[in-house]
Design brief:
Elements lengths: L2 E6 L3 H17 L4 E6 L3 H4 L5 H4 L7 H8 L5 E5 L11 E6 L7 E5 L15 E3 L3 H10 L4 E3 L5 H9 L5 E5 H6 L7 E2 L14 E6 L3 H6 L5 H17 L7 E6 L5 E10 L3 E10 L3 H16 L1
Parallel strand pairs: 1-2, 1-3, 6-7, 6-8
Antiparallel strand pairs: 3-10, 4-10, 5-8, 5-9, 11-12, 12-13
Helix pairs in contact: 9-10
Length: 297
């Protein structure tokens, strides 16, 4: 039996996501035995700063990929949104899982479903994301946004301890953790999510045997959405310091719909949409990136 070592972060969510990825890879390689290799990353260690202030590209991804490059693991598992536009030379995204919800979610300390449009001025919102900060302020600039780091369980605990009135997190994280908590699903416009949100990615050396085995075995729709969003990032070459949202949705059809959100002129939000056939996913991402570039220039 062939053993496949899988590098992953050690948070509860990361381990659950790794189990999800392994379950899909087992359909392709049923004879394999999978072993987790837990890696602590810079993003896990530095928790007192927003991600865009840490000063490391791929704060949650880089150290996990190093385990593969150093021969400690065969593949690395990531939330696709944590993978920067440039990954280590010789590595590639070789497999993705079907996409869960890409939307963000607003959790209110009252325990009820509360719309962001109903929040009074002075409400304290917790998020460390520059994108989420600007998006929520775009609908109510009277809100107070404070930094919030830590895993999902820690963030929810801080909310319940009344450190915040509401927090914004990825809906897919709440569902994967099976948290019994009410929340408001934030609409794609104006709350356009980070590229890759909702997709779990497997990264491996591009010339490895496992890359060859997994080739063309991903969910067709998730793979097209991934290619669109990655091409968008690669063309734009934007980092975590850029307040940017982009998502590509297929609705299980042969047509892709992409939405991009960028902030210009000290916080003015702009949203653009476009469509393309599923086999033109990369061209759609490239075209949208060029349009965003023109807005930023």
């Amino acid at each position: 039996m062939r053993k496949i070592k899988v590098a992953t972060r050690g948070s509860r969510l990361s381990l659950i996501q790794t189990d999800i990825a392994i379950s899909y890879m087992k359909h392709v390689i049923p004879e394999a035995e999978f072993e987790k290799v837990v890696i602590k990353t810079v993003g896990d260690i530095v928790t007192d700063k927003p991600i865009h202030e840490i000063g490391v590209v791929g704060a949650f991804e880089k150290d996990v990929d190093k385990a593969v490059l150093n021969g400690l693991a065969d593949v690395a598992i990531h939330s696709l949104k944590d993978i920067p536009s440039e990954i280590p030379y010789g590595m590639d995204i070789v497999f993705v899982t079907p996409r869960d919800s890409p939307n963000d979610a607003l959790i209110h300390r009252s325990g009820e479903v509360v719309s962001p449009y109903d929040l009074p001025s002075g409400t304290v919102i917790g998020t460390s994301s520059l994108r989420r900060r600007l998006q929520i302020l775009s609908i109510n600039n009277g809100l107070i946004v404070k930094n919030l780091r830590g895993n999902i369980d820690t963030r929810v605990a801080k909310l319940m301890n009344n450190e915040y009135d509401a927090i914004i997190v990825a809906e897919c994280a709440l569902k994967r953790l099976n948290l019994d908590i009410k929340y408001y699903r934030l609409p794609i416009i104006p709350f356009t999510p980070a590229p890759g949100q909702g997709i779990i990615a497997v990264v491996a050396p591009s010339d490895s045997w496992i890359a060859r085995v997994l080739k063309d075995k991903s969910d067709r729709y998730a793979w097209a959405m991934m290619k669109c969003e990655r091409t968008f990032l690669e063309t734009l070459r934007a980092g975590c310091r850029t307040a940017l949202g982009f998502v590509c949705i297929s609705h299980q059809s042969n047509t892709l719909t992409a939405v991009a959100n960028v902030f210009v002129d000290e916080g003015k939000g702009i949203w653009i949409q476009s469509r393309a056939d599923i086999d033109k996913a990369e061209r759609l991402g490239e075209r949208m990136a060029e349009e965003v570039k023109s807005l930023l220039s």
